[in-house]
Specification:
Order of helices and strands: EEHHHHHHHHE
Radius of gyration: 19 Å
Helix content: 55-70%
Strand order of the largest sheet: 2-1-3
Shape: globular
Structural class: mainly alpha
């Protein structure tokens, strides 16, 4: 088996990607998946590689930080409450955050992230119609929650990107699906 990536020197093999793809291909979503061997099929394998290495980065970093899943670990809905949250953090991070350990790391890394009252008030001034039926206090509370969630997701996303850059090596052909240097990344209409 060939190595498609390493995480802190530990190999990720083609068999790992094959196994993850096999699980997808037996799921109810199989009809929506691209055919194996096509450009889109190779892009799927690149994405699965990104997911695998990111999962391993999270496990490694959780061990290094002494983080475990506990009663305070947020559920997925708390971390990713809507489609906007999922889009802003990216599909690989969304996939990783399905795991409670990743959410425990997320909670640890973002526990001190907050937004100040001026930022909340500024948002309300710029978006007066977003919460028109709420009292100002209720609107401010909802805005604070919204902005705090976005700030926390940004902190996690940036941390994840930094840790992957430091720990992950990808073999040629297993680059990020959006990497313009790989041959299947073409823009078509």
């Amino acid at each position: 088996m060939s190595v498609v990536a390493t995480v802190a020197g530990t190999p990720v093999e083609t068999g790992d990607v094959d196994a993850r793809e096999a699980v997808l291909r037996t799921s109810p979503q199989t009809a929506a998946l691209p055919r194996p061997g096509t450009s889109e099929g190779r892009q799927l394998r690149r994405w699965l590689t990104q997911l695998l290495v990111t999962e391993r980065v999270v496990v490694r970093e959780a061990e290094a930080l002494g983080i475990t899943v506990n009663d305070a670990t947020p559920d997925e809905e708390a971390v990713l409450p809507d489609l906007t949250a999922r889009l802003e953090i990216g599909s690989v991070a969304v996939g990783v955050l399905a795991d409670p350990l990743a959410r425990a790391v997320y909670a640890h890394l973002t526990s001190g992230v907050d937004v100040d009252d001026d930022t909340v008030a500024d948002y309300l001034r710029r978006n007066p119609r977003r919460f028109p039926s709420d009292s100002e206090a209720d609107a401010m509370g909802k805005i604070a929650e919204l902005l705090r969630g976005a700030a926390r997701r940004r902190v996690f996303r940036l941390w994840l990107n930094e840790r992957r850059a430091a720990l992950v090596w990808l073999a040629p052909g297993y680059e990020h699906p959006g990497d313009p240097r790989q041959p299947d990344n073409v823009h078509r209409h």
